[in-house]
Amino acid sequence: MTLRRTLLAIATAATIATPAFAAPRRAPTPALRVERVVMVMRHGVRAPIDGEVPAGTLTAAPWPAWPVAAEQMTPHGMRAMAVRGRADRAWLAARSVVPATGCPDRVRVWTNVSQRTIDSGTGFVAGFAPGCDIAVGRRAPGEVDPLFEALRARTTGFSPAAAISAIETFTGGMDRLVREHRAELRLLDRVLGCAQPMCSPGAPAGLRVSDDGHGVELTGPIRRSSGIAQVLLLEKAEGMPVVGWGRVTPATLERLGVLHAALFDVFTRSPYMAAHQAGPLGRRVIAALTDANGPAFDLLVGHDTNVTALAAALRVDLVSPGYARNDTAPAGTLVLELLRNGRTDARTVRLSYRTQTPAELGQLGSRVTTTPMTVPGCTRLCPLDRFAALLSSHLAPVSQSSVPRH
To answer: DSSP label at 343?
Structure first.
C-alpha cells in the first residue's frame, strides 16, 4: 500500500470512530466586568486628638512630640495618602475602572468637613491623579454632614435610652466588657511603665445619656484606654523610630488594638447603633451603586466610626493584617465593586477591605492588602438588588431632606 493510501485509510478510520453525538464545546464563562467602585475610607495618619490620652494618665517617660497641632494630618500622613492614591489608581486601572495614566473622568471625592478628612482626600487625589482637576467636595465649614455624623445631625429617630439598652444587650454590659479585656489593660499598664494599675484613674465603667440628651457617653477603663492604644498605633504609622518607649512590638500593637476595637462595640457595632450611625451613609452607598449615571469611582472619606458602622450594618467583621479584629486602619477602606455580567447583564456587588499595616504606613510602603468579605445572607458575588435590600433592612429610616445629593 502506498503512503498516500495508508494516510487516507487512517483519516477515514478516525472519522468513522468519532461519534456523531459528541458533545459540543462548552461556551466560555461570560466575563465579569467591574462597572464602578465605591470606597468608604477612614482618614489617614494624624496627630493625637486632645483628650485621646486622658488627662492624668501616668507614664514612666514623656510622650513624644508631634509635628502638627492636635488631630491634624501630619506631613508623613499626607505623603502616605499620596502613596495610597497611586496604589489605588493602579488597582482600579487593572479592573478597567479608570485609565492607568492621564486625568480620569467620572471620579467623585467627598469628605467630611473636619480638616483631617479634607486633607486626606486632597492627599489621596494628589497621588491618584497628579496635576488633574479633581475636586475634593465637602459641605461648608461649620455645617454638620449627616453622611459622617448622623447622630449629631439628628437624621434618624435615635433614642439614647434605647441605644443604651441595645449596647448592654450586645456587649453583656460594661463591667463584662472590662473583664473580657483585663489582660490587654494590664499589658497597657506595662507599656506605660506605671507603678500602679490603671494608669489613667477615673470614673467606673458605665453608660449614660449625654448632657445634651441626644447621644450616649461611656466611662471607665475601656473609654480611657482605647484612645491610648490608638495613639501608640499612630506612632508606628507615623514612622517614629521608637514606639511606646521601646516597649511596643507589632504583636503588642495588635493586642492593644482590642481596646480600641472595644470602643466600637459600644458606639457602632450593636445593631441599633449601626442602624442609626450608618443610616445616611448606607443609603448613599446604595444610591451610588444603583444610579445609572453615577461616577465610575466614588470615594467617601470620613472616620473610623463611619467604616465600623457601615461594616456592622453589613454584618461583617473588619479583619486585616496588623490590626485587632474590628479595629480600623488609618486610610482603611471598605470597597464595594459593582460587576456586570457581559452575557446576562446581571449586576452583582463584591465587598472587600483594603488596608496597609502600621509598619507599611510608617515606611511609606506601597503594599495594600485586599481582604475579601461576604455579606451574611448572600454569596461572595451578591446580586445588586439582594445587596441593596439586605443593607437597607439594617438601616434606620432617614428623612429624604437630610440625605444630600452630591
So the answer is: T
Report whether 95 contacts 37 (CB < 8 A).
yes
Helical H segments across 245-350, by residue range: 250-267, 271-277, 279-290, 304-313
Dig out the grid coordinates for 219 from the structure. 466611662
17-49: buried (b, 16+ CB within 10 Å) or exposed (e) per residue?
eeeeeeeeeeeeeeebebbbbbbbbbbbbbbbe
Q: What end-to-end distance do the CA atoms of the chain give, in Å?
A: 83
Provide, for the chain, the percentages of residues in helix, strand and coil under a 3-state DSSP scheme, each rounded to the nearest 5. 40, 15, 45
The CA–CA distances, whole Å, from 216 to 128, 150, 314 equal: 38, 14, 23
Q: What whole-number distance in Å separates Cα of residue 164 and Cα of residue 183?
A: 26
Give the position of cell 465610575.
Answer: 296
Query: Strand 382-383 relative to strand 347-355: parallel, antiparallel, unpaired?
Result: antiparallel
Cα 373–394–272 angle (5° rounding)? 110
Do the beta carbons of residue 332 and residue 45 sit within 8 Å? Answer: no
Collapsed DSSP state (helix, strand, coil) of residue 340: strand
Q: Which three cell numbers, joined as nine digits, stand for 115? A: 480638616
Provide the whole-model pTM. Answer: 0.90
Rounded CA-CA distance 129/118 in Å is 16
For the chain, state the CA radius of gyration.
26
CA gap 181, 205 in Å, rounded: 13
- Asked whether the CA dihedral 384, 157, 110, 233 is positive or negative, the reply is negative
String of b and e for 108-137 (b: at least 16 CB within 10 Å)?
Answer: bbbbbbbbbbbbbbbbbbbbbbeeeebebe
3-state secondary structure of 148: coil
Q: Quick check: 158 and 267 in contact, CB under 8 A?
A: no
CA atoms of 343 and 353, how far apart (whole Å) = 28
Residue 244's φ and ψ, nearest 5 degrees, are: 60, 40
Instruction: Name the average pLDDT for the chain.
Output: 91
pLDDT digits (tens, 9 = 90+) for 253-292: 999 999 999 999 999 999 999 999 999 999 999 999 999 9
Give the 3-state secondary structure of residue 402. Answer: helix
Average pLDDT on 195-212 reads 76
- CA 366 to chain CA centroid, Å, is 18
pLDDT computed for residue 405 by the predictor: 46
